[in-house]
Amino acid sequence: SKFAWHPSRYINASAFENWLQQNGLISTLDFNRCIASLSDDWKPEYNIVNVSNDVAFNDSAPDLTNPDFQAWWWNLFWETSLDPALGLPGDALWIDEFDEQGANSNHIILHNSRRWAEEKNYWFFRVAEILGKQGWDVAFNGEKRPFIWVRGMTSGAQRYATLWSGDTNPTNEEMANQVRGMLAAGLSGFPFWGHDAGGFQAPLDVEAYESLYNRWALQFGSFSPFWRPHGANNASVISRWPLDRGDANAIDARKYGELRYALLPYTYTIAKQASDTGTPIARPMFLHYPDDAEAWVRDLQYLWGPFMLVAPNINGEYAQRLWLPPGQWHDFWDGWLRSGGREVGYGAAVGKMPLFVRAGAIIPMWTPALSTAFVDKSTLHWHVYIGANG
């Protein structure tokens, strides 16, 4: 079976789960559509009848409207790993390649008697519903939170799952698109959006990638709803794992990792607000400054919750230009207070992403730890940014 614990890579998957728990780690189970037909108890009748030749792996193109497939799919996860009685890893689901079924002919008839043209924009809702609503929510009955992320998504499915942006190129232009994509996703009701931080495809210029990796995978990545450096890799020199890279990347991975963990009380608060109200975690400038024309054109900077301003260095140059909204703003790194309502210059040295805090903000932090499992939650550190009524 392709969806199974490999007997030599995971000689004892239960012992691996114990190790994960001891080290404060969780695990994600990855299901690529191409392995469906190679997994235990798959039946050919689960496939879309007369599936188009243009669909990649078209012998492994399940019909999501088929109740028999739906039951088989969830049971595959449950019986392979998710059932707590098994004592095996499995805390989240990563669902890949269902977007490739979009190449189907509009006239194909599905199991529920509807044409593909009627179902294709609903396809990812079905993925989320099968695994989230019908699977996870029923099986765990509120005892374990789901986290299901899919390469593609349909409006309404955020009740059960979220998405990431897919196989992106490691370029400055694509990094800019990911900032815009994150903001668009948040405005569309998907605040828990992710991206392959650093770009998925292998970089053409390995030397130049050092800078992009730092600016995208570490800096922008750490101020994204979920942070996941990930990409194609066929040599350690282009690995997304920071310890495989140069010393500067390793140092900054620790720097931004510790910062993200320190900010978790603040970030968790805005994540809870996103869950309750739909207000994005990463917010376009015009969401807080709708009457300021400048806010509508500054689409490569954003607010992290109500009090922090993030301006990723897209072009890799030292001299950056960014817009500070009206009011007073503290440079996060040195506390320097600047007046807003204007464009400002900023020296973005290697490893230093432009990051500001609104005057009057009160930001709760805690002492960073190697995992949220090990955080001392008995103490909060309150960072008060003077200059306005907080």
Describe the structure.
A hairpin with a 3-residue loop joins strand 6 and strand 7 (308-310). This protein has a 6-stranded antiparallel β-sheet. It is globular and about 65 Å long. It is 29% helix and 14% strand. It has 9 helices and 14 strands. The mean pLDDT is 95. It is α+β, with helices and mostly antiparallel strands and 390 residues long.
Tell me the overall shape: globular
The strand order across the widest sheet is 5-6-7-12-9-10
Q: Radius of gyration, Cα only, in angstroms?
A: 22 Å
Cα distance spanning the termini: 58 Å
> What does the largest sheet look like?
6 strands, antiparallel
Q: Which quaternary structure do these chains form? A: single chain
Residue fraction in strands:
5-15%
Query: What is the H/E order?
Result: HEHEHHEEHHHHEHEEEEEEEEE
- How many β-strand stretches? 14
As a percent range, the share of helical residues equals 25-40%
- Please report the number of helical segments: 9
- Secondary structure class reads alpha+beta
Can you describe this structure in just a few lines?
Helix content is 29%, strand content 14%.
Highlighted features:
single chain, 390 residues, alpha+beta
Secondary structure elements and pairings:
Elements: H1 13-22, E1 28-32, H2 67-82, E2 92-96, H3 116-119, H4 123-140, E3 148-150, E4 162-163, H5 172-187, H6 206-222, H7 247-262, H8 264-277, E5 282-284, H9 285-288, E6 302-304, E7 308-310, E8 319-324, E9 328-331, E10 337-339, E11 342-347, E12 355-358, E13 362-365, E14 381-384
Parallel strand pairs: 1-2, 2-3, 3-4
Antiparallel strand pairs: 5-6, 6-7, 7-12, 8-11, 9-10, 9-12, 13-14
